[in-house]
Design a protein that fits this description.
By secondary structure, the chain is mainly β. The protein has one helix and 14 strands. The strands form three sheets. Strands 1, 2, 3, 6, 7, 11, 12, 13 and 14 form a nine-stranded mixed sheet that branches. A three-stranded antiparallel sheet has the order 9-8-10, with no helix packed on it. The protein has a two-stranded parallel ribbon with strand order 4-5. Strand 2 and strand 3 form a beta hairpin.
Length: 164
């Protein structure tokens, strides 16, 4: 492990010499991830992207991609574009990336089951803002917005998320 790795334990995340409270999936940590289980998968996950809401914040890093109206994430394991960003209209199961709430205003993308997804092994694991302290996610890792901004400002594509 390197100091630039995000190291997730069941109680917090370590990054660059600091500890951050965070929330994980309602299904806890898992060695065997499945679509809809609410678990955060153990393992080493590379950082593959950074998304942000340009109507709510300035571009947080040179490599960030704006979330536009109609941007969705396919979570339908029966589709060829499962676990990929898609555009509306999209008639299959998906998650809106441009939400009314601020949960996905800033999102770090990991390479969990990406870019070639195994059907049913779970769609994206994002790093994003939490709803509130202690409120679990659907499998993602979530932080207080101030902590998330601090983490994003120091994250590069060489950073890894290590889930123990």
């Amino acid at each position: 492990m390197k100091p630039t790795d995000l190291v997730l334990t069941p109680t917090h995340l370590r990054f660059m010499g600091r500890k951050f409270p965070c929330t994980i999936g309602k299904g806890g940590l898992s060695n065997i991830k499945r679509e809809g289980d609410g678990a955060t998968p153990r393992g080493v996950h590379n950082i593959v992207g950074l998304l942000y809401r340009p109507d709510r914040m300035a571009k947080p890093a040179a490599w960030a991609t704006p979330i536009l109206t109609g941007d969705l994430w396919s979570d339908d394991p029966t589709q060829d574009d499962y676990n990929l960003m898609v555009r509306a209209p999209y008639p299959f199961s998906h998650e809106k990336l441009r939400r009314a709430d601020p949960l996905y205003d800033l999102v770090i993308l990991t390479d969990w089951n990406w870019p070639i997804a195994k059907k049913g092994h779970g769609s994206a694991i994002f790093i994003h803002r939490w709803r509130k302290p202690g409120h679990p996610t659907e499998g993602c890792v979530a932080f207080h917005p101030t902590a998330l901004r601090w983490i994003v400002s120091r994250t590069t594509k060489e950073t890894r998320l290590i889930v123990k």
